[in-house]
Structures are given as structure tokens and as C-alpha cells.
Amino acid sequence: MHFNTKVRQITTCPDAQDGQRRVQLDVTTLQGGDALNTLYFDEVVVTCPLGWLKRNVDKFTPSLPPRLTQAIDSIGYGCLEKVYISFPKAFSLSKEGDDRKIQGFVQWLSPGYASSTNPNKWTQEAVELASLAPGDAHPTLLFYTFGAQSKHLTASVAELKDQAERDRFLFDFFKPYYSRLPHYSESAEDCKPIGCLATDWLLDELAGYGSYSNFQVGLEEGDVDVETMRHGVPDRGLWFAGEHTAPFVALGTATGAYWSGESVARRIAEAYGRPPSQKDDQ
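C-alpha cells predicted for Amine oxidase domain-containing protein (282 residues):
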């Protein structure tokens, strides 16, 4: 396992001295500057996000097959982000003598009461995590953002260098919404957020400056595109895994990404003589 290491080029070498195909990775380390190191493997599983693949198809030598390149280009790549806001207690759950509560999913449609922070009236969506099973529950709201709102939030937070400033910005941005939950009181300590965590995949080079594959309007052969990426280029020792190659029932999910890795592992094992698995018919 190599930490702080970037792959710069992936090259299939069919004419190795021993007559066996090899996949060559040219890598650099953060400490080594531009100095290239070379690693060789029999098989390579590429788990880079779809957004990275879209921007880096030229990192493969020889070029990827045209149909695979087309598939990578055709499937959409999103900009979903997440913001977690935690409180001392789950104040929005029902109290004795008062059955008002939220449970699960919450949505604020086209809010017109936050003009200073949300003049575009972006829809707000959140999942409250206090209603999970007792071993997993905690007093946290998970907000999902996408589109222009994600771009606004990630860019705004990135401009703030101090963590306390970032937290305050996010608390203030989402306060018009969590303050409308049952049992909220401005003066109650349980209603004052104590922690915040926001993703910034839109600014992450290795995430491909985005997150999650999706099917855009006008897509013509999305199923074939996914199957093409899922198949990879096994005759060149190149396999692909990730949420963009998952079984259709789990595309765009962490579960699907995990399943796709299991599927590739079984296929590689079978290529080296293991009997076919009954499970792998995805």
C-alpha cells in the first residue's frame, strides 16, 4: 500500500520479456516531486471515480477502446454534497405529552423566508439520524445539496480559512430550516449546534470534482454504457469498479461500489482458474 502517491499513467505492456502481459503504473509521491517511479502488475483494478475518468482518459496507454471511452463520456456525473450538523440532543423528537416530531426525511420546498442566505429559494432536504437503531442513532441532521447550491456552499466554505468561521457560515445558512423543526427554541442549549462537517467533492481533484454518476436527459444507451464500464478491458489486465459500475439496483451508492469490487474480485479469481461463482450474475 502506497500513501501520498498519485498514478500518472497506466500502460499495458504486451511484450514483456517473459512473454506475459504486464500493466505498468507510473507514479509520483508528494515527497518526490515530479520524479517517476514505475510499478508492474498482472492485473489492475481502477476504482477512480467516474469524474476522474472523464478528465483523465488520456492517462491510459494504449487508448481505451472507443466504446468504453464513449461510455465514460455519456454517463452524467453529479455535484451532490452533504452537510452534517450535530446538536447536544435530538430536540425535534416527540416529547412527553406532545407527539409532534420529525422522523426520517425532511424537506423544505422553495423556502421564501431566508432571502439573505438563500435568495434563489433552493429546496432543502435533510435526513435526521436520531431515529436510527439505538446503537447507531445520534442527534445529527444530514442535509443533502446539489446543483447550484452545492457550488455556492463549497466555494463559500473554501474561502474561509478558520474552522470556526466555516462552522458559523454553515450554521447560519441552515438555521432558517432546522429552526422550524418541532420543539425548537432559540434559547434552549439543546437547539444550538455543536458540530458541523461538510463534504467538498466539487473541489477534490481525485473525486473528479464532483460525486455520483447519474442518467441525464438525452442519454440513449445508459444501460449499455454501464455494462461497458463494468466489463472493463480484461484482456489488457484493466478492470473497473466503483458506484458507476455497480449492479443497476445500486448505481450511485456506496453499497453498489462495494458490490462492484466484489464482482471484479470474483472475475479475476475465475480468470486464474477459480470455479465460476453462482452469485456473480450482475
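The mean pLDDT is 93.
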